[in-house]
């Protein structure tokens, strides 16, 4: 069989975005067997991506590999020069940002129109706004005109089929880091992945008040771990291999994750998991086939735009911490979600 090749540079974006793309293109490859999907990803995903998706997707990690389409979150003015050089882009976020922005300006409407023109010309391909509240994984792939024939119903049906396949793989001998250490008593305990670049990060005071006996898991280079240690909380580390997150979760009695990178891995890997929504729409960030628990945001300012804490001390609504952490019903829902 002669395949039609689709080459995609998926290096740009958050790690959660990259994982959703892999999950979604894996299903797209089953629905469109006439296509050969070549996906360029950061090297840190290489071992796990090949382990889970290598039977359908061609995984590319060479830095100098040039692909036909590239993901981008940049605005039009930043893409003009590369477009003039012949580059083509996929922009799954632009319309989501427009949807979630509370106060829209004239420039937002102009950008929306210009992106629609760019999509019609095939230079910046964007998903239709009618799908803006469905699972982000679908938005990541249907920006590509070549595969817009995949309906959302067919996509979800294939995700359900693939869920059992990937769950079995991720429950096996996934690649992990040599440095990974799993506490001997983790099987009796809760593990929490509290991190996130925006306001979804769990505050230390909250951890001490509500779940002081849990293990809190951090990437080994994350300086935030020190404040948890100083507060007397138990910490554990994961390393370069994303499979470390999965192994730690499997070893624990139950897992809680903020709506950040670990939650995307765990939606594919675990049923004993609670995902906490603070920032993004639940319908967009949670896979329709996830079989764990979800605690949705309860505050009026949700959803909010992603604003990293490093460069933006306050969120768009003007707060240093997400208001959800101080909401009684939100906290009660978290505690009730654990099947312990």
Layout of helices and strands:
Layout: E1 4-9, H1 15-31, E2 35-40, H2 46-53, E3 58-60, E4 69-71, H3 76-84, E5 88-90, H4 94-100, H5 106-121, E6 124-125, H6 136-142, H7 152-170, E7 190-193, H8 204-210, E8 215-219, H9 225-230, E9 234-238, H10 243-251, E10 254-258, H11 261-269, E11 273-276, H12 282-285, E12 293-295, H13 328-337
Parallel strand pairs: 1-2, 1-4, 2-3, 4-5, 5-6, 7-8, 7-10, 8-9, 10-11, 11-12
Helix pairs in contact: 1-6, 1-7, 1-11
Q: How would you describe the overall organization of this protein?
A:
The chain has 340 residues and is α/β, with parallel strands linked by helices. The protein contains 13 helices and twelve strands. It has helices spanning 15-31, 46-53, 76-84, 94-100, 106-121, 136-142, 152-170, 204-210, 225-230, 243-251, 261-269, 282-285, 328-337, and strands spanning 4-9, 35-40, 58-60, 69-71, 88-90, 124-125, 190-193, 215-219, 234-238, 254-258, 273-276, 293-295. Strands 3-2-1-4-5-6 form a six-stranded parallel beta sheet. Helix 1 packs across helix 6 and helix 1 runs parallel beside helix 11 (261-269). The longest helix is centred in the middle third of the chain and has 19 residues, at 152-170. The protein is globular, with a radius of gyration of 20 Å.
């Amino acid at each position: 069989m002669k395949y039609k090749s689709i080459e995609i540079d998926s290096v740009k974006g958050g790690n959660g975005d990259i994982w959703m793309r892999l999950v979604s293109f894996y299903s797209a490859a089953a629905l469109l067997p006439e296509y050969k999907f070549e996906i360029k990803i950061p090297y840190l995903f290489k071992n796990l991506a090949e382990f889970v998706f290598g039977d359908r997707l061609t995984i590319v990690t060479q830095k100098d590999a040039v692909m036909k389409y590239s993901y981008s979150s940049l605005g039009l003015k930043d893409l003009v020069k590369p477009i003039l050089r012949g580059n083509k882009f996929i922009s799954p976020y632009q319309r989501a940002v427009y949807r979630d922005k509370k106060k829209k300006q004239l420039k937002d409407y102009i950008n929306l129109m210009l992106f629609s023109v760019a999509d019609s010309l095939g230079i910046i391909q964007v998903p239709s706004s009618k799908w803006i509240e469905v699972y982000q994984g679908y938005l990541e792939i249907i920006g590509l005109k070549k595969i817009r024939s995949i309906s959302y119903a067919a996509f979800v049906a294939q995700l359900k089929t693939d869920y059992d396949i990937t769950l079995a793989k991720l429950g096996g001998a996934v690649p992990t880091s040599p440095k990974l250490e799993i506490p001997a008593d983790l099987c009796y305990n809760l593990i929490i992945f509290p991190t996130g670049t925006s306001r979804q990060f769990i505050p230390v005071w909250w951890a001490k008040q509500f779940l002081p006996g849990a293990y809190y898991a951090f990437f080994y280079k994350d300086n935030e771990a020190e404040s948890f240690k100083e507060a007397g909380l138990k910490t554990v580390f994961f390393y370069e291999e994303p499979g470390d997150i999965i192994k730690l979760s499997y070893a624990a009695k139950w897992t809680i994750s903020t709506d950040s990178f670990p939650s995307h891995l765990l939606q594919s890997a675990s049923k004993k998991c609670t995902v906490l929504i603070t920032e993004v729409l639940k319908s967009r960030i949670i896979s329709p086939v996830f079989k764990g628990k979800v605690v949705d945001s309860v505050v009026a300012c949700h959803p909010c735009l992603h604003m990293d804490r490093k460069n933006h001390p306050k969120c768009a609504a003007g707060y240093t911490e997400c208001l959800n952490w101080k909401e009684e019903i939100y906290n009660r829902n978290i505690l009730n979600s654990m099947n312990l």
